[in-house]
């Protein structure tokens, strides 16, 4: 019988790499995205795909650190890291970092145990359960933004 931590880890997997219910997972959404598109701003006032990938990576990493007991306060630069260079290598590194951050978070969730899900998130008023579901919801939200940006870039609605 799967535990709640198993189910949360499964949701974290589905949203980035697996079979997401809502549509393509993040890895499938960005698989055909060239660095120039990833760095582009086809929607005025919106973040780029690349910025969203960095941002999701940050929050998977922050969640893992908080699960380890660390109080983490995120600076604006950490929340939305800059794009240093628009190259194939840098883009591949960014997407690989997201995959690694989510895989690390999943491993940490699986090791956590259901008995700790109601523990308070260090430095925050919510439980670890709320934190982890928040990461799933956050990633799904930004996956939708990535899909919208891709559509806008090719002129489809």
Brief rundown of the structure:
The protein has 157 residues and is an all-alpha fold. Helix content is 61%, strand content 0%.
Task: Give the topology.
Layout: H1 4-16, H2 26-30, H3 35-38, H4 49-67, H5 76-79, H6 88-112, H7 128-153
Write a structural description:
61% of the residues lie in helices and 0% in strands. The protein is built from seven helices and no strands. It has helices spanning 4-16, 26-30, 35-38, 49-67, 76-79, 88-112, 128-153. It is globular. The model has no long low-confidence stretch (mean pLDDT 95).
Question: Key terms for this structure?
Answer:
157 residues; 7 helices
User: Runs with pLDDT <50, length 5+?
Assistant: none
Helix content: 55-70%
Query: How many DSSP E strands?
Result: 0
CA distance, first residue to last residue: 43 Å
Query: Whole-number radius of gyration?
Result: 16 Å
In DSSP terms (H or I, runs of 4 or more residues), the helix count works out at 7
The biggest sheet, with number of strands, parallel, antiparallel or mixed sense and barrel status, is: none
Order of helices and strands: HHHHHHH
Proportion of residues in β-strands: under 5%
Class of secondary structure makeup: mainly alpha
**Which whole number gives the mean pLDDT?**
95
| CA-based shape | globular
């Amino acid at each position: 019988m799967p535990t709640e931590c198993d189910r949360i880890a499964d949701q974290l997997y589905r949203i980035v790499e697996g079979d997401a219910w809502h549509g393509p997972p993040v890895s499938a959404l960005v698989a055909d995205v060239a660095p120039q598109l990833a760095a582009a701003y086809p929607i005025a006032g919106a973040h780029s795909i690349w910025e969203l990938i960095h941002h999701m990576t940050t929050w998977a990493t922050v969640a893992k650190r908080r699960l380890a007991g660390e109080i983490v306060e995120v600076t604006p630069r950490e929340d939305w890291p800059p794009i240093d260079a628009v190259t194939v290598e840098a883009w591949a590194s960014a997407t690989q970092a997201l995959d690694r951050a989510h895989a690390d978070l999943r491993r940490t969730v699986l090791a956590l145990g259901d008995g700790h899900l109601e523990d308070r998130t260090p430095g925050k008023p919510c439980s670890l359960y709320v934190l982890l579901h928040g990461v799933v919801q956050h990633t799904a939200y930004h996956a939708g933004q990535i899909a919208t940006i891709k559509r806008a870039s090719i002129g489809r609605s």
